[in-house]
Write a structure and sequence with these properties.
Length: 277
């Protein structure tokens, strides 16, 4: 009897399960062939027995018949053994599939927990923890290879008014829209993160000069200042950005973020869009 395998599983079988299934299929074919041999031997022995019953005593025929019956019994026994082995093999395959399924599901849960630990739930952007980790790593590389890095601290202007006028969920949509725009314009090596509330942090890797940084800051401002449709209204919001540069403004992540934060307040006061530390 063939065991019912878990065909609804969305997880592709591993090489081990595939090879075990091949062995089982092969073994089932052998068992079927052996079972056919048993049937053929039975019918041959039946005919011989009938012939033997009609004859005078014939010792040689009697011996041959006994041997043939013994062979049939042995082959029958082999067919039964093969059935037992195949059932054990089928059980083993089901168990392996179950374990593989369990393993994949545990790995998916771990991956999801890891993602949640390092990302902001509202916008999906990297959170503070991931940003700090990337900044620490970037600083170690910058020290080793003499790179220049830039940290941008960005805060939205008068974001509270959006919440007050249009409601908190409209504010959430605005934060999500802005985050998507920021992600779209961020280079692969750079990092944009949500620091909290309406604050975002940028890490720019291997920056050549301030002209490049200013161009990036203008690009970010331009992208954020594009109108955003909220509940039928076109909302326009602007950011203030403070910029600190490694090694000029600090050689630790705390110092660079602090300098950029201070510069952001200057940009906000002067309404200049962005300012350097
Ligand atoms: N919708 C929404 N609002 C948030 C979230 N987190 C923080 N806020 C709000 O964001 C606002 C941030 O306010 P501030 O940055 O202090 O004020 P602001 O109006 O932007 O003023 P300036 O920065 O001085 O221009 C506060 O009203 C918070 O309640 C969030 O996840 N969703």
């Amino acid at each position: 009897m063939k065991k019912q395998r878990n065909s609804e599983s969305s997880i592709p079988p591993t090489n081990t399960t595939v090879s075990l299934s091949k062995v089982l299929n092969h073994s089932e074919t052998i068992k079927d062939t052996v079972a056919e041999c048993v049937e053929e031997l039975s019918s041959v022995n039946l005919v011989l027995n009938q012939e033997f019953a009609n004859q005078e005593t014939n010792i040689e025929l009697e011996n041959a018949l006994e041997k043939s019956d013994a062979v049939k019994d042995k082959v029958e026994d082999v067919a039964e053994q093969l059935t037992i082995v195949n059932e054990a093999l089928a059980d083993e395959i089901i168990e392996r599939e179950r374990l593989e399924h369990q393993l994949v599901s545990v790995m998916a849960q771990e991956e999801s927990a890891r993602h949640d630990a390092f990302h902001d739930p509202l916008t999906g952007l990297p959170n503070r923890v991931l940003f700090n980790d990337r900044l620490e790593h970037a600083l170690a590389q910058a020290k080793r290879y003499n790179w220049t890095l830039a940290v941008m601290f960005m805060d939205l202007n008068k974001f509270k008014e959006i919440n007050d006028i249009h409601g908190h969920s409209a504010g959430d949509v605005l934060l999500q829209t802005i985050s998507k725009r920021l992600l779209d314009i961020t280079r692969e090596d750079d990092t944009v993160s949500r620091h909290g509330g309406d604050e975002f942090l940028y890490l720019l890797m291997q920056i050549e000069n301030e002209i490049d940084i200013s161009l990036i800051a203008k690009k970010i401002i331009n992208s954020i200042e594009q109108p955003c449709s909220l509940e039928g209204h076109d909302i326009v919001i602007s950011p203030s950005i403070g910029i600190s540069i490694y090694p000029k403004d600090g050689d630790s992540s705390e110092a660079l973020i602090k300098s950029a934060d201070k510069a952001m307040y200057q940009a906000k006061q002067k309404k200049s869009g962005f300012a350097y530390a």
